[in-house]
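A note from the maintainers: we've had questions about how concatenated examples are separated. There is no special marker in the raw files; a new sequence line simply starts the next protein. For clarity in this README we add a label.
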Amino acid sequence: MGGFFNTFFYEPILNLLVFIYNTLPGSDIGWSIVILTIVIKLILYPLSKKSIESQKALQDLQPKIEEIKRKYKDDKEAMSKAMMDLYKTEKVNPLSSCLPLLIQLPFFWAIFRVFNDELSGKTLDMIYPFIVNPGTMNPIAFGFVDFSETNIVLAILAGASQYFQIKMMPNKPAAIKSEGAKDENMMAMMNKQMLYIMPVLTVVICMTLPSGLAFYWFVSTILTLAQQWYIFRNNPKNKENSGQGQVIEGEIIK
């Protein structure tokens, strides 16, 4: 497994980073990471697009899902059938939101290892023969930031970008007065807590890593924000919903 991972994930990303580093005037590691992140985002865009669209579709279905759970709470078989009918009618696959993320995990792990290894000054012994081996990579980015050391500012920027990325995802309270709305509002409350917990965790994690990784996290999240904005803006369902007027806030009937 280690050989397969190195051959198909670690080595291509490492060589792409070194190629960009060698090609850029001044061989700046900061700009190299920006360009590498853009290239990886473009390669993985079809998977990211599918994941973002599926997450939003599932969130849009939450009121109907909670209503089915309430209606068939004592009949699991009928609940499962109603759920499957709902997914079929709305053309939503509940697995399609996490499958693209799982496929992307090896890329994320490879990127982490490449940055962690090379920014820590380890040898570049997996460079392809047709790429010039620079020997070492200068960890000083933009002339003043040492990407091999931790950096609290970049960690906070990574956390802040994570906050805005989560905040952009739709998180509406229940719009229908029903007993099921109680569960929906509880889910909305949990999502609201994640809005703050995830950015804090991001800052804590990034404070323990070489700042090059925190910078990659920041740039990657900013690009994901742009992807989300573009996908939401061009989603036909969003355009339809935009003409339906203001959402009515839900109330829980006791």
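[label: protein 2]
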Amino acid sequence: MDFLRSLSIAASGLKVQSGRMRIISENIANADSTANTAGGAPYQRKIPTFKSRFDDALGAQVVELGRIEKDKAPFETKYEPGHPAANAAGYVLTPNVNSLVEQMDLREAQRTYEANLGVITATRRMVARTLEILRA
């Protein structure tokens, strides 16, 4: 039973980190997305939130992906008078996505994902080893 508990807890971590990586990938993909209309708002960075809840079936805390919030950081401006999204003064608003920050977040999510995957791998080995011992 404890093997199943550890597998379920690690699986919830995998699910959350994969969702986090999806959001970060979306931010990186839209780092240069400007508005379609003149003076419009560009892509706004998304920030994943996490929440923990007590799972009655497992008898343990599990983590879940919470609301996806929009970053309230101001947009950058770039002077490009010929751009279709430029305002009357010739400035284009660019997304508030910093590629370096996104890469750091992505790396952290990847490491956490790998840690949860390591828990699952170790648990599977323990189950296999236990079965070998019981067969002998």
